[in-house]
């Protein structure tokens, strides 16, 4: 993702990566970078970032509704109860990415999420503790990992989570608003800054 901007359908500048696919504009304007404290959404995003590993976000975004249907709307307790039969069912589901390792990782991560919630109170409380200080942020969209994403990745792996490398975790932090990585000229950057300002950290 470069720092250049591209004009959206309304003629106003957006992050340059929106140019890669027309459906990116809606996702960029309504979701990407806005702070999230909902555990189900946080879990879903971390799972989808794991599924994206080696693929494009466009592929995952196009299949997102199918993923939600296949994984019970990413309800953590439900996914944690998935069995080997569910793995086989998901391997036959053409609407999602049929990668056994990633499917098994999502189920494994639901169980890890349960343990983390039992210990910390919520995923949100834990993830937001890893929000980097403004002084530690790089220029928007110039890096694909950071000290914060490396630390969170390491911590999650230690707890047994899978498909949570530093790049995956950094993309998760960008999308869930733990950092405002919208390009300097992007019209949504100020909206995200305002949303982060009034956001109640869990």
TrEMBL record:
Keywords: Metal-binding, Zinc. The keyword Zinc applies. GO terms for biological process: base-excision repair. Transmembrane segments: none annotated. GO terms for molecular function: DNA-3-methyladenine glycosylase activity; metal ion binding. It holds the Pfam family Adenine_glyco. SUPFAM superfamilies: DNA-glycosylase. InterPro entries: Adenine_glyco (IPR005019), DNA-3mA_glycosylase (IPR052891), DNA_glycosylase (IPR011257). This is 3-methyladenine DNA glycosylase. Zn(2+) binds at residues 15, 28, 182, 186. It comes from the Bacteria. The keyword Zinc applies.
